[in-house]
Amino acid sequence: MNDAPHLLAIVESKMAQVRTQLEHGSPAKAKELLEEVRIYSQALRLDLAA
C-alpha cells in the first residue's frame, strides 16, 4: 500500500502547525512539532524509496 499521500498530508499539516506556533510565540512547541515533521518526512522518504 502506498502511504506517501497520507504521510505528505501529515507533514503539510504539521508544518502549518509549526508556522502557527511560531506566529503565536511558542518556539518550544514549534520545535516539538518540527521533530514530528522530521520523523514523518523520514517515513515518507522510505515509502517513496520502496
Strand content: under 5%
Rg over alpha carbons: 12 Å
Main β-sheet description: none
Order of helices and strands: HH
DSSP strand tally: 0
How confident is the prediction overall: mean pLDDT? 96
Helix content: over 70%
Quickly give the structural class: mainly alpha
3D shape: elongated
Task: Provide key terms for this protein.
elongated, mainly alpha, 50 residues, 2 helices
Brief sketch in words of this structure:
This protein is mostly helical.
Structure description:
Helix 1 (4-23) packs antiparallel against helix 2. This protein is elongated. The protein has helices at residues 4-23, 27-49. It has 50 residues and is mainly α. The mean pLDDT is 96. 86% of the residues lie in helices and 0% in strands.
Secondary structure layout plus pairing:
Elements: H1 4-23, H2 27-49
Helix pairs in contact: 1-2
